[in-house]
Amino acid sequence: MLIKKIKSEYDFLRKEISAVEYAFWWLVRILLFAALLSTIKAGNNDFLDKKIRSNFLLTFAFPAVHLLPRRFFPARLDYRVQSVISAMLLVTSFFGQYKGFYSTKEWFDLYLHFFGCFFCVYLGYELVRALLNKKEGIEPSLATISGFGLSFFFAVAWEIFEFISDSIYPMSNAQNWSCYNSDRLIALLPPMDPARLALIDTMTDLAAGSLGSILGAIALYIYLKYKQRKS
Amino acid sequence: MPKKNNNHSLKSEREKVGLAERFFWIITCLLLFYSLVSAKVKGRSDILVLQLAAEFLICLILPALKLFVKRGFVERLSFKVQTHICIMLLVTAFFGQYLGLYSSMEWYDTYMHIIGGFVFVFTGYELAAAMKSEGTGYDPLLYAIAGFGLSFFFAVGWEIFEFICDSVFVDSNSQNWSAVNSEDILKLFSAVDPRRFALLDTMLDLVAGTLGSLAGGVALYIVLKKRNKSLLLKTYESTCA
Q1: How far from each other are the two terminal CA atoms of chain B, in whole angstroms?
Q2: Which of the residues A151, A172, A203 would you substitute to probe the B interface, choosing the one with the greatest number of B C-beta atoms within 10 Å?
Q3: What does the pLDDT look like over A121-162, one tens digit per residue?
Q4: Which of B145, B195, B207 minimises the CB distance to A160?
Q5: Contact between residue A98 and residue A49 where contact means Cβ atoms under 8 Å apart
Q6: Where are the beta strands (DSSP E) in chain A?
Q7: Nearest of A90, A109, A141, A125 to residue A209 by alpha carbon
Q8: What gap in Å lies between CA A174 and CA A201, rounded to an integer?
Q9: pTM reported for the whole predicted model
Q10: Cα angle vertex B123, ends B3, B121, to 5°?
């Protein structure tokens, strides 16, 4: 039965993604594995190995979910979602955490929120398709609105997750409330009371994410309209 | 199943605004006008008068748009949105700002975000319904998701608006970054680094809004499911007749 399921999932995979995408999944896995080994070898890494390990495991989580029966909606999610997850893990875990871009490049986090929300519109759309169990036939405007809204839900959930992390672990600075490496960002904003500085990272993340979501929604609407016309 | 019929019935359902609701709009408008005049006469702060004036105008925007724009999105947008606007203006502008509950009741703002999250799921649904073209299917789950998602768009939009206000106006404390009247909240987060205090109000607002949106999403789905059932039944009966 499991072999039959794997075979049917393989057919779905072949239909939904290209060979290049599949190769990209493995490239990300290899890069994260190499980063994990290198971090463990280096030692004294302030939880970095734990973070990379969990991200490495995450690269297998989504395909594993597809082993569930398709009556459960996560198993119906398009395989292309894994390509987006892989891209996000590559930039956040490999470049951000392992290569240290989060701490060395001031605008890195802001770009990630922008692009993250751009792609979250698509993820939201795929989530809606899986929930409704509809491959086609959702009206482009409604599909776009749903994806657009859900991208804001993801953005807020992420900020709440960071806030909880910072509240549980005393040394945590996930919301960058201490304004580490934010000199140019502070200089860009109007002069403000130092007590407000903790808000800057969170609010600029939300603003960048909003811009990404708006552009993502426009892109998704054009794509869905084009697909509708073609069919 | 003739989908067009279903859509027409859906539209007429959306347009149904009872007498009580219209009465509620008028009461809200009158209360806002009274609070604006009273604030001006009593010489209350300029910023409060400005806020109340803006909120009174917001109360009139949708009816005015409906009066002058007779096609497209505005024409399709249900008057239910005006009821949602009035609920929010009444609790925020009249009770919160004019009667001062924001500053006298510590958890008032948090309650407002819960109520706001809940109400804006329904507003999001109405916006999504107004974007829908005639002749396409109607799925309660899709509309519930759209409404749920859009309520987060409103929540984030609101926080960004407050952040801009606080950045533009020197004395502004919209995001309560100075943790005024937040003793209970500060007690809850007693172990927090004082440099994080500015975040507490904003993050609590987002958490409260999320709870409201979750409850609103579930409620909307149940309402739409029920409405869809009765619409299908009506369509079936009219087809048989």
Answers
A1: 14
A2: A203
A3: 999 999 999 999 887 778 999 999 999 999 999 999 999 999
A4: B207
A5: no
A6: none
A7: A109
A8: 10
A9: 0.90
A10: 95
Q: Work out the widest C-alpha separation in chain A, in whole angstroms.
A: 65
Structure tokens at B226: 């029920």
- DSSP 8-state symbol, A190: P
- Helix residue ranges per DSSP H, A67-135: 80-89, 101-104, 108-132
A132 to B155: CB separation less than 8 angstroms, yes or no = no
Query: How long is chain A?
Result: 231
- Looking at residue B180, the DSSP 8-state letter turns out to be T
Token output for B21: 């609701």
CB contact under 8 Å between B128 and A177, yes or no, is: no
Q: In angstroms, rounded to a whole number, what is the distance separating the alpha carbons of residues B200 and A60?
A: 36
Distance of CA B232 to the CA centre of its chain: 29
Q: Do A150 and B168 make contact, defined as CB atoms within 8 angstroms?
A: no
Please state the φ and ψ torsions of residue B135, each to the nearest 5 degrees.
90, 5
**Hey, what are B76's tokens?**
């399709």
Alpha carbon A138 to its chain's center: 24
In chain A, domain spans: 1-97, 105-231
Residue of A nearest to B170 (CA): A192
C-alpha angle with apex A81: A77 to A87, nearest 5 degrees? Answer: 165
The long-range contacts involving A127-133, CB below 8 angstroms and separated by at least 24 positions, are A127/A77, A128/B142, A128/B145, A129/A76, A129/A78, A130/A73, A130/A74, A130/A76, A130/A77, A130/A78, A131/A73, A131/B141, A131/B145, A132/B139, A132/B141, A132/B142, A133/A73, A133/A76
ipTM: 0.91
B-interface mutation test, from A169, A206, A211, A214, most B Cβ less than 10 A away: A206
Q: Which strand (E) or helix (H) includes residue B184?
A: helix B183-188
Is B160–A206 a contact, with Cβ atoms under 8 angstroms apart?
A: yes
Structure tokens given for B163: 């952040």
Taking the C-alpha atoms of residue A109 and residue A35, their distance in angstroms, rounded to an integer, is 20
Residue type, A101: F
Residue with tokens 């859009």: B150
What would the pLDDT profile of B28-70 be if each residue is shown by its tens digit? Answer: 999 999 999 999 999 999 889 999 999 999 999 999 999 898 8
Q: Which of B136, B162, B199, B225 to mutate to test the interface with A (most CBs of A within 10 A)?
A: B199
Domain boundaries, chain B: 3-240
Q: Detail the DSSP E strand segments found in B128-176.
A: none
Q: Give the tokens for residue A130.
A: 């899986």
Nearest-Cα residue of chain B relative to residue A186 = B167
pLDDT, tens digit (0-9, with 9 covering 90-100), for A19-49: 999 999 999 999 999 999 999 998 867 688 9
